[in-house]
């Protein structure tokens, strides 16, 4: 009964949220983020987000990976500003139709639900960008991953960029040098990259994103051992040469519902589902990244610590153009 009450979806928004004046735009400085930003204005923000995430992950464990991915794709375009959540309108083209978002980026309804609860608790106070950052942390913890304190105070962008989404978000087919460059452009180094890719331990990928890999060099990197051959056969059943683009497979074939360091073992065995991930181990340019993969597989505590640090570092990428606190994560305020 308690669980049902926590997951209850219907409630009315406070009328006061519609009476608030539209906040003034202000420049966003990452140094302004803090752990106390909502201490007086919305002290229950983390409790509200955590409660909704507990319901969502209990109902569908994949929701954890969805929220982590939303936060990542948000931060890689214009900074962590909630731009990934904006719907297309007559005057705005959003990022949801970008190559790495369309047909694969999900979880928007869950964001709506959390935002609705936050608006009822603290109208016009908590940004969608902060919602994503907190929810990504809670998602990680709820499936066995590490906890970290989330600095908050981000503003929501009033703009989105389909062009930047297509340009800046890493793709599964890109090589290691390109991937490292994309992370460097965001102020993240190769160590951050390997740690953040470790989140694929709870991720799923579409056939369209791993077909080239399994019909390409998978056998070579996995050295065609019998166990790998059996795994490859299963992947080809899921993802035929033609059709089935939206069929999915877990990226961690060992413990797909638990956040742990097992995904690094798949890379060491040459069984990484995505070419971009396997490159960190197999690329001739990947001496340092391969060494990091080894370390994270040998020492889960080290991986957890670096993952937490890298998530904070990524989360501190803000949009210098500033923004607002949206009442709806799908649309800018009017």
Major beta sheet, strand line-up:
1-2
Per the CATH scheme, the topology name of the largest domain is Peroxidase, domain 1
Strand content: under 5%
Number of helices: 15
Q: What fraction, in percent, of the residue positions are helical?
A: 40-55%
Rounded mean pLDDT is 91
Q: Kindly state the number of beta strands.
A: 2
Radius of gyration: 20 Å
Name the shape in a single word: globular
Structural class: mainly alpha
- Report how far apart the termini are: 39 Å
Give the CATH class of the largest domain: Mainly Alpha
Domain unit count: 2
H and E order = HHHHHHHHEHHHEHHHH
Quickly give the CATH architecture of the largest domain. Answer: Orthogonal Bundle
Query: Main beta sheet: strand number and arrangement?
Result: 2 strands, antiparallel
- Low-pLDDT segments, ≥5 res: 1-27
What's the structural blueprint in terms of helices and strands?
Blueprint: H1 2-6, H2 45-59, H3 62-75, H4 108-121, H5 128-142, H6 162-168, H7 176-185, H8 190-197, E1 204-206, H9 207-214, H10 218-221, H11 226-238, E2 248-250, H12 262-268, H13 275-282, H14 287-298, H15 300-315
Antiparallel strand pairs: 1-2
